[in-house]
Amino acid sequence: MVISLFVSGMFVIGCSDENAITPGEEVPPGGATTESEAMKYLASSDEFVSNEDLTFGDEAMEPTEYGSFLKLGNSIIPISWGRFVDQVTITTSTVIEDGDSLATVEVVKTITGTFRILAKYSDDDTATVLIEKPFTDQSVRNVLFKRVGREVGRFWLNWVPVATSLVDGATVNPPADQVVNLTELQFTKAGGDTITVTDPTNFYLRYGWRFLSDHRALEEVPVMFMNQAFWMRATVVSASPDTDIVVLKYGFSPTARKRTAMSLVSQTDNGDGTYTRVYEISAEVRHHPGFFHAGVLVLTKKTLFDDDPANYSVNWWGVPYRVL
């Protein structure tokens, strides 16, 4: 199943019916004719699958704290920037596990758009320039389903989504000197509960509000309350000797958007042409109930500080959470 979506106006989040499974018990979702097609439709329209596009895309060009970067010799001096998504093409595939009680739907998104930078070429410039970098990125995540029935007539009610993996997104074919990879993410709620992830698409978080247990998802999607604090720690391995830019993107909805820079706390030269860098930040969830991501977006320095359109490379993971 391949679904091509134009991004503007296509996403709905913050669904109020937390137990909704299908558009209606008497109508198959998306015109599905098989159990597999029904699962593909439900996975591609899952609240978290939809929200990731809102989280990692931008609606406006906004500034980010650049720190010491502005003091270095760069091609440009960025004032503000945004990653604007034009089109998302979704491809899904289903694997039913032995025993016919669990199934996994892989959701792959091919994302095209333009990375825009409003910049100056020197501190003395009074005029600004708009730099545009067309991109093609791709993201992957898995949605886990559990069999709850074996109806023949209403086959679309036989499987229920019970868990999601993290999303893993990156640039397709980045420049060789700008390969950047998140290798670990730690999400800590107030009180000390920590989720540590090293393999995002194989790390599942259970939909606790569905009350359906599953051995593959040992931890639940974090359920947060408005203004509750959380902490994020990200480990990045980069081929760039220049420090990467890492931002936290969270609480993204039509009325709640936030992007802020994460702080570099350590850096190690691995001796093989790569560098390991660790970034941290603390934040509070936004004033809006719904389904969200605490997303970490990594950009190489040349992505933001160089005017060559070919210099673009990003990587992102996102921890799903729910705000009550």
How would you describe this structure to a colleague?
The protein is mainly β and 324 residues long. The protein has one domain. Helices cover 8% and strands 49% of the residues. It is built from three helices and 18 strands. Strands 1, 2, 3, 4, 5, 6, 9, 10, 11, 13, 14, 17 and 18 form a 13-stranded mixed β-sheet that branches. A five-stranded antiparallel β-sheet has the order 8-7-12-16-15, with no helix packed on it. The radius of gyration is 20 Å and the shape is elongated. The chain starts with a strand and ends with a strand. 40% of the residues are buried. The N terminus is likely disordered.
- How is the biggest beta sheet arranged? 13 strands, mixed
Class based on secondary structure composition and strand pairing? mainly beta
Number of domains: 1
C-alpha Rg (nearest Å): 20 Å
Distance between the termini: 33 Å
| Proportion of residues in helical segments | under 10%
Average pLDDT reading: 88
Quote the beta fraction.
Answer: over 45%
Continuous helix count: 3
| H/E element sequence | EHHEEEEEEEEEEEEEEEEHE
Basic shape? elongated
Query: What's the number of extended β-strand segments?
Result: 18
Q: Low-confidence parts lasting 5 or more residues at pLDDT below 50?
A: 1-23
